């Protein structure tokens, strides 16, 4: 059937990959809707590339590939690259984080929802638990939403790293993406609203093992560039 191309961007993911490989192999072994898995190594400096290459050689799953980015360029650019090499025959394209923080059952739910709701163009995760958010992260999230473009403020969780698309929609939207890092999700949804795409927010729960007090983004280090990119996207609305 080859319905789904699953893109997984990775930057220095060696500590997560063994568990991720195990989950992928056990979940997808009998899932006929999986067409391919595309790992995008976003300039990793650890053993990420070797681990993925060994997984490809030793695993029974078919149609797994790795795409390399020479230097770390950001998740947005990595996902865009993965989508650009996806099998043109696949009906759906989606991406999730290397830790598989929302599990793989939700991937199956997304595909099933697409099949039952032909009007839906995009499915994005909506995180239901607040355990992930320390006071610091809650403050950062609230500040982030202040700068969100007005056209996407009705979307509860723009930043959830679980997004799936009908393949033509994914290719059309990512052609327009110019931000490479944290704001690409927002830009993506701005383009989706502009093109009148129908978006469904699928409730997801984050694994307890993936809950962190601060996350990888800090206000002082990343805040200025995030605000700059948000303003850039907002001014193009």
Structure description:
This protein has one domain (4-235): Spore Coat Polysaccharide Biosynthesis Protein SpsA, Chain A, CATH 3.90.550. Helix content is 40%, strand content 19%. The chain contains eight helices and seven strands; from the N terminus they run βαβαβαβαβαβααβα. The protein has helices at 17-28, 48-58, 75-84, 105-116, 135-146, 167-175, 184-194, 219-235; strands spanning 4-10, 34-42, 64-69, 92-96, 122-127, 162-166, 199-204. The chain has a seven-stranded mixed β-sheet, with helices on both faces. The N and C termini lie far apart (38 Å). The mean pLDDT is 88.
Can you lay out the helices and strands and say which pair or pack?
Blueprint: E1 4-10, H1 17-28, E2 34-42, H2 48-58, E3 64-69, H3 75-84, E4 92-96, H4 105-116, E5 122-127, H5 135-146, E6 162-166, H6 167-175, H7 184-194, E7 199-204, H8 219-235
Parallel strand pairs: 1-2, 1-4, 2-3, 5-7
Antiparallel strand pairs: 4-6, 5-6
Radius of gyration: 17 Å
Tally of separate domains: 1
Give a count of the beta strands, DSSP E runs of length 2 or more.
7
Shape: globular
CATH topology label: Spore Coat Polysaccharide Biosynthesis Protein SpsA, Chain A
